[in-house]
Amino acid sequence: MAQLKTLSIAAAVALAGSTAFAETDLEAALDNGAERLNADQIAELLIGNTVTATSGDKRFRFFYDPNNVVSGELTNGGWNGVGAFAITDTDKVCVSMAADKGRFRCMTVLRVGDTVQKFSADGKRTFELHSFEPSTGL
After folding, report:
1. H-only helix segments in 47-129
2. pTM, whole model, 2 decimals?
3. Do 95 and 103 touch, CB atoms closer than 8 A?
């Protein structure tokens, strides 16, 4: 019984130790010198602009209307949508597309070298933003 208890404690410590070293994409970027953008910087990049972004192999365009409406499209077709966005006092951009059924997904925005990247609440990199062009819509 004592051996089983010792083995259980050792296994728990080993599991806890291995998860402690797991670093999110967000943490890794910050550890490597990325700059967290504040609400004003995010607003300057997004509001009134059409933004070209990639997520994996997919290329998107999003327009961030000054009235907090976001529209988006997959550049080679197959998806387009409209939703709402907000920039928070806690330096995040939150988006809710029609498919989200009212749920907002809030993302941290970082400048990583010469690029701008968005990260989900769990620290996963979701989008890399490539261009910001003044626009009146898609």
Report:
1. none
2. 0.81
3. no
Amino acid at 113: G
Closest to 58 measured CA to CA, from 80, 34, 75 = 75
17, 19, 20, 21 from 8: Cα distances, Å: 14, 17, 18, 21
Rounded to whole angstroms, the Cα distance separating 20 from 39 reads 30
At which residue do the structure tokens 């972004």 appear? 53
Q: Are 135 and 120 in contact (CB under 8 A)?
A: no
Residue 93 CA neighbour count, 13 Å, CB half: 26
Q: Tens of pLDDT along 35-60?
A: 999 999 999 999 999 999 999 999 99
As a whole number of angstroms, the distance between CA 45 and CA 130 comes to 11
81 neighbors 97 (Cβ within 8 angstroms) = yes
Q: How many CB atoms sit inside 10 A of residue 134's CB?
A: 7
Record the tokens describing residue 63, joined without a space.
């327009």
Q: Which two tokens stand for residue 79?
A: 């998806």
